Amino acid sequence: MSDVRVIIQRDSERDERVVATGTTAAELFAGERTIVAARVAGELKDLAYEVQDGETVEPVEISSPDGLDILRHSTAHVMAQAVQELFPEAKLGIGPPVRDGFYYDFDVAKPFTPDDLKAVEKKMQEIQKRGQRFARRVVTDEAAREELANEPYKLELIGIKGSASSDDGANVEVGGGELTIYDNFDAKTGDLCWKDLCRGPHLPTTRNIPAFKLMRNAAAYWRGSEKNPMLQRIYGTAWPSKEELKAHLDFLVEAEKRDHRKLGTELDLFSVQDEIGSGLAVFHPRGGVIRRTMEDYSRKRHEEEGYEFVYTPHATKGTLFEKSGHLDWYAEGMYPPMQLDGGTDYYLKPMNCPMHNLIFDARGRSYRELPLRLFEFGTVYRYEKSGVVHGLTRSRGFTQDDAHIYCTKEQMAEELDRTLTFVLNLLRDYGLTDFYLELSTKDPEKFVGSDEIWEEATATLQQVAEKQGLPLVPDPGGAAFYGPKISVQCRDAIGRTWQMSTVQLDFNLPERFNLEYTGPDGTKQRPVMIHRALFGSIERFFAVLLEHYAGVMPPWLAPVQAVGIPIGDSHVEYLQEFAAEAKKKGLRVEVDASSDRMQKKIRNQQKLKVPFMIIVGDEDMAAGTVSFRYRDGSQENGVPRDQALAKIADVVERRVQV
Length: 658
Description:
CATH class of the largest domain: Alpha Beta
Number of strands: 33
Low-confidence stretches: none
Oligomer: single chain
Radius of gyration: 30 Å
Distance between the termini: 74 Å
Strand content: 25-35%
Mean pLDDT: 94
């Protein structure tokens, strides 16, 4: 038997090794139990793969992103096998790994119940303990159709081989050029236990699945289209150790406590009501105070930064979106047209930028006016599918803090630097501090503009980003076709990442709208256009802050900054005078004059997460003082009224948490 020479690549280390022909990746990494797959020439392979002469082989750790995907996809297969053993009539859909877990879609006669999920999880544990072996097998299209004749959804996937999308998870089944089926064999008898159409790779055996749990089930359209049948989707999670699974479940408990939808109801901030429609929120008075405060502070900071405020209508003729290109590439995300004025199509606007371009183009512009920074709290409407609508973070009607900056090419670098600095500083003012940046660069298959301008713009964005001293993550090919962008990613109090602001160059719209300004030499020149949404949307940022603070808003954002708690009815008037003084200073102070006992009043305000409680009894009235109660239950007695007001005003002015 001849030998083959392979190179084992571990990060920057390369180890050349001579092994016998037929050696598998599992044998290369024998004894390394955390290795679950191999990467060869950029492709992931099962550990059963036989290495070839001259190949470079990289081990894939179970805790790496690829390793976690393999673990979770293998667990999805185990779940599907368990479902079909318990519900033989179930037809298989798609079962991809997703962030922190996996799912699998099934066509069944009736939805799964909580007891069904318990039974499936128990059956999965049995399969896991059996140590069934995953084995890859290449099949022809014809053979696959014959083997899977009773699986109609798999037959459909076979028909789209080579064009499957990652959007609906189909690429985990038939994304490559050849079709493969994974067989599960009994570890003792070698009998075939189950099989599924799949690209792989998979773990060597089901025993390599350390820890998993089924989470919930939901309805889902086949391949995400409302035109297709409704299937039942089971979600689960899988981790490299029981400790990591427990940590994840604990994290989910904390995240559930912080869910902005739950807090929105508990704190009486906003609601989404059926009579209005999915994805269309209304803000209640308490939530309205927070939102107005957020907007007012943002307006003030934008004015200081030289932005000019504009206002545009909520609807416009369709011809504007034809000119901008939105009807060509974004029509599915828009609400359907309204026919007015004798058959003219009008649309609710999904973007503000076309109207801002019309404002720029409403009269001649000189280089002396640039940079021109137009800003609007512009409400837009996007038709999100019902399955992806999620509270305030993914809605159908929302208000963007939208700015478009028009500048000369020479001003571009300074303006990008200034914009990114402003964005980060403003986010910090709201209490967010843990950032990294993502630089999305050109997709070589889809872009407008010259290579030279893309290279210059990308280099400028990179310099601007690096100047901030934050981690910079490349996103090659991730830019929109009209220009590169920087995204500000933010981690909240429990470590979740949210995409916040974007700073986006646009080489497309200035051309489409034929935007021009007169240069110093009298010639007409094309401005550089920068899109910039700082919060993304007011609603989404509201939700992020609510979850970041777990509803315990810093006093400057709290709907009520202090509540007066009278010990008896005779103390109400004194507290009302205190509240009136506070109002004159711009503070939000209320008095609980209800008939509830004092301790119940305190409990009520604790539930509403009010920053301060001002408690008054006979001694306070006689001395002209108040007792100051903090969120943590501590109390400061005998505080003069003016000092109490100054204390509240100080923390509000400094925008600090208490």
